[in-house]
TrEMBL record:
The chain crosses the membrane at residues 27-47, 53-71. This is PrgI family protein. Keywords: Membrane, Transmembrane, Transmembrane helix. It comes from the Bacteria.
Length: 101
């Protein structure tokens, strides 16, 4: 018997990911989340430079991390779409088994 041996590279799951960790969709969502917040912090905080940088980083880093990681290993827009679909199609079951909208 002649079996062909296929070697699977260690980084085969890294395709389509940024730095091998984050999906491109999550990266775009994180950037779209953080850019408006960054602009608002830089433009409207009435602080000197060092406190402004500290406050901005305190807001931007968790927001960007949340955007990169997503919710339950899904991107936020995909999760929000699933949640919205569930929210629109849910029903209340009454005592007699009737469905009320």
């Amino acid at each position: 018997m002649n079996y062909e041996v296929y070697h699977i590279p260690t980084n085969f799951t890294d395709a389509g990911r940024v730095m091998g960790l984050f999906e491109l969709r999550n990266l775009v969502e994180a950037v779209l989340l953080t850019l408006p917040a960054l602009y608002l912090c830089i433009a409207f905080l009435p602080l000197d430079l060092t406190p402004k940088i500290i406050v901005t980083l305190t807001i931007i880093v968790p927001l960007g991390g949340f955007g990169l990681i997503g919710i339950s290993d899904d991107s936020m827009t995909r999760w929000l779409g699933s949640w919205w679909k569930w929210r629109r199609s849910r029903r209340i079951i009454l005592f007699r088994g009737e469905v009320r909208k």
